[in-house]
Specification:
Blueprint (H helix, E strand, L loop, with lengths): L2 H12 L7 H13 L6 H20 L1 H7 L3 H42 L9 H7 L6 H24 L7 H13 L1 H36 L10 H20 L4 H5 L7 E6 L2 E6 L3 E4 L12 H8 L14 E6 L18 H6 L9 E6 L16 H45 L11 H7 L23 H16 L3 E4 L12 E4 H19 L5 E2 L2 E2 L1 H17 L2 H25 L7 H21 L7 H26 L47 H18 L14 H21 L1 H22 L5 H28 L4 H19 L22 H27 L18 H16 L15 H15 L21
Antiparallel strand pairs: 1-2, 2-3, 4-5, 6-7, 8-9
Helix pairs in contact: 2-5, 3-10, 5-7, 7-9, 8-9, 9-10, 9-14, 16-17, 17-18, 18-19, 19-20, 20-21, 20-23, 21-22, 21-23, 22-24, 23-24, 23-25, 24-25, 25-26, 25-27, 26-27, 27-28, 27-29, 28-29
Amino acid sequence: MSQSDEKSLIQFINDIPPGVNAYSTVANQLFSLLQPPTTPAWVQWVQRVILLGYGIMFLQAVYLVSLRIKTKMFRGIIFNELAIFWFYGKAENEYNHVQKLTLNVIKTLQDASLSYSPESYDEGKLLIMLIPERKAESHLNMVNKYIRMAIQVNLYQSVLPSRKIDGRKLNSETGEAIMLKSIGEKTRRKRDLIVMHATIAYTSTLVYLPVIIWQSTFKGDDFLRNPTWLIGTRLSAILIIKNARLELPNPRAQTQKITSPTLELRDVFGRCEVRTNTETISIPEPRLQPNTGGNILEKAAIAIMPLRIPNGGIRTMRTALHTKSQWSPTRMLSPRPFVRSTSESSNASPSSSNSDRKVLASLDGGPVNKISQPIAPNSKAEAKVAFYTMGRIIRAMIFTTLGLGTSAVVAFAGLHLWVENFELPPGNRGLRALKEEEELYGWKEELEGWGAAYAGGGTDSRIGWKARSLVRAAWVAANWQTGQRALSQTGTDVADEDGWMVDSAFAIAETRLQQALLLARKRGLKLDQDGVVDRALMELESRLAYICECINTPLALTKAHQVYERLWQACAGAIDRLGKDGKDCWEIREGMRIATRLGDVGLKLSTSGLILDPLSIVDSQRSAEQYLVWSVTQGLGLAVGDGEAFRKIPTANDQSVFAKPGGIFSFLTKSKQPIIDRDSTTASASQPLKAEVALLEASLDALNQLPPEKILGGPYISPTASRATILALTRFIVHLATVDVNLAYRLQKRTHGVLQKAIPGNLNNNSPDAFLHGNWFQTREALAAVYLAELGYATKHLKPESVVDLCQSALRSLDSVLSKERFQDEVFKRGGTRSASGRLAEQAHRIREEARMTAAMASNILGIMFENCPVNVTKESPAWCGSQPGCSSAKAFFTRALRYSDASTTSDGLGGENRMVSLWNQSRHHLDRVERNIPSTASDPISSKSSSSLSP
């Protein structure tokens, strides 16, 4: 273990929360340090493609490589290769020693974790177990040394062949090649190999030197675990090393002969063909000049004068006509120049046939001599060809890279611009409300925010461009990412057999938001600065906590609890400064919402198994209950116009009640008797909880005495604060039912009475905001009726007919909400993107989904109630059972529940776009059970087109 690893490990141990098994956590962390970093999939595919290309090149040039084996340079390369293998072998041996030492320490930690308990845990004992790991530092130093030496040998080997180039020797060999053609061919091939190899060697050196410089910037062996360095060296090294190893210039260019191509002209059925030793060129008739006279071969000779013969480097061509009686049209002419003699010219018969004509071409472009001489190699021209070919390859690579890079940049910028301008800003379609009305109903405060929703934008420019990009990336992951990801109990990316499979969308979004918040804090932004809460950071941290809730692992819930606690502390401080007059303000409303979330997360943590101490579990649950009570008392206090009266239990600064900042694990140090009896059969509320419930009942009774228009809508409380109050009260009653169902029934009965009386005062259709607020109250009143029916049936306080009446009343109210045509207005419609949606589309969609969920719950309860009715109805049957058989009525209600939970199966406008899987499965299970007992000839009691009366 290096010094940097030791420091980070000690910091990791100090950050382990109390109550977590530190031995197994540190063991998992050490195991993760042993794992090498992995490269992305695209890097691995690029590596495979490059290897495949070099394999094909090697097969094409096996003969050329075999010739190189005989040289002294090849023996030097082989020697260096052995040195490289030796260095890497020694590095692997040293790493095996490090791995063996670390695995022994991990085994010791795992053995100690079996007997772990929070009371007997000693951090000093844990550090003593880690002392043997220090022996690994010397082995890691040797690993670093061997790898650096191997890299330096690689660099030297790529430079070595270029030092073998000797210009004077090449010139002398070129001179010899002028006299001897065979020697000239060998020299040219050798020169081509050396020029190409020198170019590759110099290019490799130029690219490889930054890799060495980059590596020297790391401390110790840190470069071995840096993913960026790994990607860069893998892609660059494979290009460089393979070029230097194979020494493969273009095989096709190496095997070409240096002789100039021969030329043959044939008269084929009135059409001319030009044949060389490499290819055949056909000259069509239109290319021949008709007014030149002569036969077809003469015309062809004139026509091919401007042609360039491929692979010959010819710039000009001279032609001569020579007549010889014994010449055959199919004879292959040599490249030497010919001149028609005077005697032959004088003796030529003007009436000679076409077969007596032959075309001779001088292909070297030089003076016409009668003595044939070998063509002198042109080193300058060949070097130009080689560099021209390499230049084309380099240009193609550069343009390809630039094209791909430009496409990637355009796609990246386009994606971020799309998300910033179309997905993150709230909808703005539909009728705009007055500013006073928007502030009054506060629907904008309940929008999903990513940093600037409060201002109607996407992200806040104050956090910087990099943090804004990370926020957009978090949105993309949360909305477009698919798949699952394994997380271990220690929170690292290494999964174990006891780990959790979570949605990768939330896992990636959490990481991106954490990075964005870190960058925002580095720019000097604070959550509570000079007594003012920063709303941008409030939105980002609230979104982070919500995503941690969605991950729903114990460690993620702990993180969410800590974030919510920090946000609540900031709002509570603002409440003390701004809310002393008992009036409503944004900080109070936000604090109420956050306190409700804190209560939910705290209750989840108390049952997650992360807290092992029973006393701590009780204290954690007690803290969650008091956060919920705090939220309710704030709202009820504002509702009756006396906010201070209801802040006594508890206050924002009451540290004897609430946990201090740092999470629920602060309870681990407390030692007192349990407050709540956790026996599942005799569960009852504690005395403090009973006192708080009594206070809430008294406040609800006082609120119920007010006129309908002032209930949850007086001068001191805004509509958005009244919604937050009802939401917190509902969450508290749901939890209270698991502690004391009788207390929950009493409190729910008063809540339903208040909501029932408050509906007329909150129903207002003057504006879209008021219309939505009234429908929200109507939906919540129906939900309160369903909860009351459930609790009353469980405690025997309500008779079956009362339960049926409550559920049927709730269904009628919910159908009224879902069937309102005003939801089709532009202001409530959802568009293709968020910015193209209506201004209140998200809130309307959420209300309709809650209405569908509540209606499905009421239908299932009614189905269960009617399932208990007799099959054959008699006079002794209960009046509420109706005239239909019980199973038939139950089937009708379970079918109705299926329609509510899956709106895609209906066409009557009953709701949203998503299927509620849990409710749908529950309704499907009930329906299958009833269908096995229902007669096939029974009629459907709910087949009427009217939905106003749902009773069978």
